[in-house]
Amino acid sequence: MIYDRPLTAAQKKKSQRNYCYFNTINGISYMCLGETILILLAVKMNVSDPVISALGAMLYFGYLLLPLGKITAARVGGARSQSIFWVCRNIAALMVASSAAASCFGYQKTALVLLLTGAFLYYGFRAAGVVMSQPLVGDISDENGSGKLLAVSNGIFFFTRMVTLIVITLVTNKCDSLRTLIAIIIFGAFCGIASSKFLNNIDETSSLRNSARQPLKPEIKWSLKDSGMRKQLLAGFFNNLIWIMSIPISTLAVKKGYNASDADALIFTISFSVGCCVMSFAGGKIAQKIGPRKQFISSYILFILTSFIWVFLPAKMPYIYMLIHFFILGTAGIWGLNSSAHYFLQTVSIEHRVGGSILLAVVTGVIAGFAGIIITGTLLKVTPMLVSSALDGYKMYFIITAVLMAPATWAFIKLTPLPTEKRRISRQLAQRIATFITKRH
Question: Model-level pTM?
């Protein structure tokens, strides 16, 4: 419910409790519907590699629908807006599951349309749903309590996500089939729809709705004119592009190049998640010493190195190395997200952050998504023609990726270094970044 006054202590407590319940179930839902499950489903459907690469790019391409979140929040408030889009998001997941059913009956073109459309809407509605999530957390807590709320809710989210992934790994190890993946997606979709109930039970003030009604045009104009913001847009583009070209295709290469089972692919995803969690905390200390700009550069270089190392891998899957490989990918991914958020919040004033963040999400997300679909799709189509085996085709893909993306390091080097005193993340800033990272996924 929306109130034209500050929330009482009892209303805040009730809202925080429902927010934690939402994160608990959402963690389960996320792991049943995430990128790895979508890729495994597509492989089981015998979808071509270029189409699978397009699925990885949908995470960013979906930002096209982000403005819908602001429009809806201006009418119904932050919590209700996220609830609406969360239901839509999980209905889109059911569309993805239906694509597999269509494939089983031989309707390949219909299956392909359902798969790509469902993935786009799934990520698009997610983007629209979380546009007001950070202000919502601030609205249902005070300055002293927001840190505890974020710590508890984020901890619950990551814990249930990890437990769910382990359970999924055990299930697919026992039953490695297309029907199993369909059942997992359907279960995750219903969990996601159920989680929206707790968002509807959150009370908020009218300030969120009023904030969403503010025009974005002046802020976006400022963002395009500011040289520092333009540099961030360029760096953000390459950061998202290398994510698209590295992480989904690594899972694809393990699955189709090394013929790994679904269970093995999920174990590598667990390693990726561990890298994200562990190195997120370590990255905060590193940023205090070297600054977010150098950390941003480091994350990009790690992506390039992991692509280059593929050329040295043997014909038989090096299991231990792959665990390390995905851990490093998790490190590079979370450092890129953390350092970009840190740098943005330290260089963009409060009055420009709403417009700037939306512009970053839409421009770097959508353009990187388009570029990712074109580049990865082309490479995955061409490289198998130049070699004799599927594994060699993926090796060549990653070498070309490393060569193409290496020169873009200059886009990160050109970012203006922060003063030493801004390298240390304040408690309030850390809370904002934590919310940003959690809702990013």
Answer: 0.74
